[in-house]
């Protein structure tokens, strides 16, 4: 407090020259006021309350919570011929201005007037004495930091009174109501953590306190959750489109027609050759300029799908070209046409080979949704950025990291399992009915693998019908042997 | 394969431990270097007259350099320029130091950076002096008075506070600014979009992505006049806020040294000259 006032004093002195005309104006206004006060009704000239607002103090939310520090901003305009020397603001019982600090701003239009004052707070009211009278027509703003609303929430109006230079006291209009919500269990948990000595000890370490502050970690998890859902939503919605697009461009690139190949090469190289960040900027700022307005989240899905499709196209192309020429020849010898060869021979085998790479690409896409925060999509990074901003602490970013890892770590594990499984079956090994029992006992096959093996049996039974080709194709990597009926070519690799 | 997998898992654990250790060490390292460069590191409480600097002989400044005409990167020379940059050069001269700007950082990371110490001595990026921020860091005396401005497209029909306080309205702000908290309090129904800098916010307004943007008035006025001519300042919000230079709480001697320099510059008229140069008038 005292430090602030020292600053304010030096500020006042440095603008001394500007004060003189104001002082003269204030004095003349005071004289006029005294002369007219006896004649005119007070209400016509009274000071008006413009607004009273409270700064949201809910971590990651927009609510004002009671019994937690917040900042009350009150604004009023000095009436016609008045000169105001002090203002008292009060809130209902339960609110407290104790430990609060008050910042006074007096404005004439957009120009700051150097008027300072002292604030004394007691319980639910705060009294501000100005160092000099505030001239008529001035805007007065009082920002009261670290005050608290009552714990039980509700709508509260700021009332109060003011005194004019001639010592008369008048009531202020009530402000519009400020809605305050009751203290939440989460905030109660945070308050509990605040009181723990081990938390204080933990936070006193600059590294731990800055990166892993327990209170913030807790509130971050709660408030980052919607952002996490948006991330998942975007990547899950974009991926099917990305796969379809990617497959289409992979076909075009492996096509025999020069033009089709050229189109695919342009598309893939342009998208792979430019940063996703740039593509996001172009789409988000460019499309609205040509009159195309799409919802931010939908546009996010589109950008991610298009970007991913280029990478997937290359993955699929590599997958298709890795299938030995003999497979095509064998299919041809069975009398299959090009389409049949593709759908029932080549693609099912491609799918099982590309699944690990595609999963890796999925992980990349999921992480890349973070770039969308730069254009205002409300995803994980956006929420954590906002939290870091208000808290000045890195912990929300660590909470975001954990939210990313929740998804990526299991996927990375899955990729590993599938790769092992495929590698084994491509070597001609893998669990055959008889060998599996032995393998299970001796090699401690992991649970996941057993489940995979079980699902292999299930799909084996189900895919007897040709209609289940798609299912067979999708489950292929989990199956130790190709299950599509290839007329005896299956083991021919 | 199996053995290999379990081996890697153990390796991973070992690696993780090592990484954490390194991180902790790095944290200690940077903390000690921030105090260690001064003449007397151990006597931080006693040394009231000597301030600590990240690099001897130079005043290292963190800024986002995205607030023309206050601080921005000159596109022709690629050097930081603007009112604040020239002010910091003048302050540097008074202190006998070279003022060095770091590469632009994001606005919302500047206060944590200064608080942590070790990277920059001061943060100068039109920081409004608020009591909340004062709990984290120290401010010098104010060097400029300012207000907030709300920008809309010239063609927009929603230009008043009442029009904009609606659920289908998106208002862009720079993360961590006083403009952001103004929108939170005064346009509670609108969707708040926090972005990295005011230039991105205005780009979005011009392209129609957001209905409005709120940022410091001198900045938006400059941007609207020079770059975003399809936009206009629809509401001039009288906040009467004042900009101060951000200094770590652990470095009070630097704060008072800068205050002395500011007072001298004010007395000599340099501050006024700079304001006239960059804003056309003594704001």
Précis, in short:
Chain A has 493 residues and is an alpha+beta fold. Chain A has helices spanning 2-14, 16-37, 185-195, 197-204, 206-211, 214-253, 258-273, 276-289, 296-321, 325-333, 338-368, 380-391, 395-426, 433-442, 447-462, 469-475; strands at 48-54, 69-77, 84-90, 101-108, 111-113, 117-122, 125-134, 139-148, 154-156, 159-164, 169-171, 178-180.
How does this structure look, described?
The complex is a heterodimer of chains A (493) and B (283). With 493 residues, chain A is of the alpha+beta class. Chain A folds into 2 domains: 2-180, Sandwich (Immunoglobulin-like); 218-427, MetI-like fold. Chain A has helices spanning 2-14, 16-37, 185-195, 197-204, 206-211, 214-253, 258-273, 276-289, 296-321, 325-333, 338-368, 380-391, 395-426, 433-442, 447-462, 469-475, and strands at residues 48-54, 69-77, 84-90, 101-108, 111-113, 117-122, 125-134, 139-148, 154-156, 159-164, 169-171, 178-180. Chain A has a 5-stranded antiparallel β-sheet. A 5-stranded antiparallel β-sheet of chain A has the order 6-7-3-10-11. In chain A, a hairpin with a 2-residue loop joins β4 (101-108) and β5 (111-113). Chain A starts with a helix and ends in an 18-residue tail after the last helix. With 283 residues, chain B is α/β, with parallel strands linked by helices. Chain B has 2 domains: 51-145 and 243-279, Periplasmic binding protein-like II (D-Maltodextrin-Binding Protein, domain 2, 3-Layer(aba) Sandwich), CATH 3.40.190.10; 146-241, D-Maltodextrin-Binding Protein, domain 2 (3-Layer(aba) Sandwich). Chain B is built from 10 helices and 12 strands. In chain B, strands 1, 5, 6, 7, 8, 9, 10, 11 and 12 form a 9-stranded mixed β-sheet that branches. The termini of chain B are far apart. The relative contact order of chain B is 0.16. Classes of the chains: A alpha+beta (493), B alpha/beta (283). At the A-B interface, α1, β1, β4, β8 and α5 of A face α1, α3, α4, α6 and β10 of B. Chain B: This is Amino acid ABC transporter substrate-binding protein.
């Amino acid at each position: 407090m005292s430090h602030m006032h020292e600053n304010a004093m030096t500020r006042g002195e440095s603008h001394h020259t500007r004060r003189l005309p104001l002082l003269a104006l204030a004095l003349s206004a005071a004289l006029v006021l005294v002369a007219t006060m006896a004649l005119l009704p007070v209400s016509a000239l009274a000071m008006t309350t413009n607004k009273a607002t409270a700064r949201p103090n809910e971590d990651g939310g927009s609510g004002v919570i009671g019994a937690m520090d917040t900042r009350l901003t009150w604004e009023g305009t000095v009436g016609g011929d008045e000169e105001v020397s002090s203002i008292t603001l009060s809130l209902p019982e339960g609110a407290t201005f104790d430990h609060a600090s008050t910042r006074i701003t007096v404005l004439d239009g957009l120009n700051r007037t150097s008027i300072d004052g002292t604030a004394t707070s007691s319980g639910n009211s705060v009294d501000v004495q100005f160092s000099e009278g505030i001239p008529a027509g001035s805007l007065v703003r009082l920002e009261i930091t670290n005050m608290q609303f009552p714990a039980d929430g509700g709508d509260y109006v700021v009332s109060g009174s003011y005194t004019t230079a001639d010592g008369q006291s008048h009531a202020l209009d009530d402000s519009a109501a400020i809605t305050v919500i009751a203290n939440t269990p989460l905030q109660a948990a945070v308050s509990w953590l605040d009181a723990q000595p081990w938390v204080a000890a933990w936070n006193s370490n600059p590294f731990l306190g800055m990166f892993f502050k327990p209170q913030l970690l807790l509130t971050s998890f709660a408030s980052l959750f919607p952002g996490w859902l948006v991330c998942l939503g975007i990547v899950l919605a974009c991926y099917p489109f990305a796969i379809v697009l990617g497959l289409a461009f992979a076909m075009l690139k492996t096509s025999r027609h020069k033009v089709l190949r050229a189109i695919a090469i342009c598309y893939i190289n342009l998208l792979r050759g430019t940063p996703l960040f740039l593509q996001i900027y172009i789409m988000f700022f460019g499309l609205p300029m040509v009159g195309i307005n799409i919802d931010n989240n939908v546009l996010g899905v589109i950008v991610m799908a298009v970007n991913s499709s280029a990478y997937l196209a290359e993955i699929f192309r590599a997958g298709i070209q890795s299938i030995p020429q003999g497979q095509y020849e064998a299919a041809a010898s069975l009398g299959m046409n090009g389409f049949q060869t593709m759908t029932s021979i080549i693609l099912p085998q491609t799918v099982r080979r590309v699944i690990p790479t595609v999963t890796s690409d999925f992980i990349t896409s999921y992480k890349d949704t973070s770039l969308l925060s730069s254009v205002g999509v409300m995803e994980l990074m956006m929420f954590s950025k906002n939290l870091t901003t208000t808290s000045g602490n890195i912990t929300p970013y660590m909470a975001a990291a954990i939210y990313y890892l929740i998804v990526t770590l299991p996927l990375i594990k899955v990729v590993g399992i599938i790769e092992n499984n495929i590698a084994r079956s491509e070597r001609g090994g893998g669990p055959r009915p008889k060998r599996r029992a032995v393998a299970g006992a001796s090699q401690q096959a992991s649970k996941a693998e057993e489940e995979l093996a079980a699902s292999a049996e299930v799909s084996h039974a189900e895919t007897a019908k040709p209609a289940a080709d798609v299912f067979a194709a999708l489950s292929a990597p989990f199956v130790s042997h190709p299950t599509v009926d290839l007329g005896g070519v299956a083991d021919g690799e | 394969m199996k053995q290999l997998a379990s081996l890697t898992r153990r390796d991973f654990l070992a690696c993780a431990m090592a990484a954490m250790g390194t991180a902790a060490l790095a944290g200690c390292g940077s903390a000690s270097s921030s105090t260690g460069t001064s003449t007397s590191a151990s006597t931080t409480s006693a040394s009231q007259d000597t301030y600590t600097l990240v690099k001897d002989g130079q005043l290292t400044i963190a800024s986002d350099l995205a607030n023309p005409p206050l601080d921005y990167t000159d596109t022709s020379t690629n050097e930081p320029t603007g009112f604040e940059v020239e002010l910091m050069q003048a302050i540097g001269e008074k202190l006998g130091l070279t003022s060095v700007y770091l590469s632009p950082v994001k606005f919302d990371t500047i206060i944590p950076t200064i608080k942590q110490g070790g990277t920059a001595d001061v943060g100068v990026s039109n920081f409004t002096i608020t009591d909340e921020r004062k709990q984290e860091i120290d401010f010098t005396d104010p060097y400029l008075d300012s207000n907030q401005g709300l920008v809309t497209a010239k063609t927009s029909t929603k230009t008043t506070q009442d029009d904009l306080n609606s659920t289908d309205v998106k208002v862009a702000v720079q993360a961590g600014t006083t403009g952001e908290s103004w929108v939170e309090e005064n346009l509670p129904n609108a969707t708040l979009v926090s972005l990295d800098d005011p230039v991105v916010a205005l780009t979005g307004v011009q392209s129609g992505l957001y209905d409005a943007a709120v940022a410091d008035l001198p900045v938006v006025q400059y941007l609207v006049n020079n770059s975003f001519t399809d936009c206009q300042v629809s509401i001039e919000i009288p906040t009467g806020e004042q900009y101060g230079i951000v200094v770590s709480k652990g470095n009070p001697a630097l704060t008072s040294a800068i205050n002395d320099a500011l007072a001298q510059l004010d007395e000599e008229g340099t501050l006024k000259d700079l304001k006239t140069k960059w804003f056309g008038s003594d704001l």
